[in-house]
Design goal:
Strands 2-3-1-4 form a 4-stranded antiparallel β-sheet, covered by helices on one side. It has a single domain (2-71), classed as Alpha-Beta Plaits (2-Layer Sandwich), CATH 3.30.70.920. The chain has 2 helices and 4 strands, in the order βαββαβ. The radius of gyration is 13 Å and the shape is globular. It is an alpha+beta fold. This is AsnC family transcriptional regulator. InterPro entries: Dimeric_a/b-barrel, Tscrpt_reg_AsnC/Lrp_C. Residues 5-73 form the Transcription regulator AsnC/Lrp ligand binding domain.
């Protein structure tokens, strides 16, 4: 299972939230971003319930105020660097 998650957090807490998120092994990419959201993460887990568990963990973090989860649909697209 793979998902992209957009995160909003309390102003000024972005750096510390990113540092904490780096400790979660299922998060394979993390970036601070500008715009409506503060942080972008890519999550990959073999467990079908893994994305839900990570989302719950994020929502319980005291500095995270909002999340938006986008589940990947396999078979539609893929990485542009993959061979066809």
């Amino acid at each position: 299972m793979q998902a992209y998650i957009l995160i909003n957090c309390n102003t000024g807490s972005e750096t510390s939230v990113i540092a904490e998120l780096r400790k979660i092994p299922e998060i394979i990419e993390i970036n601070g971003i500008w715009g409506k959201y503060d942080i972008f993460i890519k999550v990959k887990t073999p467990d079908p319930d893994g994305i839900e568990l990570i989302t719950k963990r994020l929502r319980n973090h005291p500095d995270i105020t909002d999340t938006f989860t986008m589940h990947v649909l396999y078979g539609q697209g893929g990485s542009i660097d993959q061979e066809s």
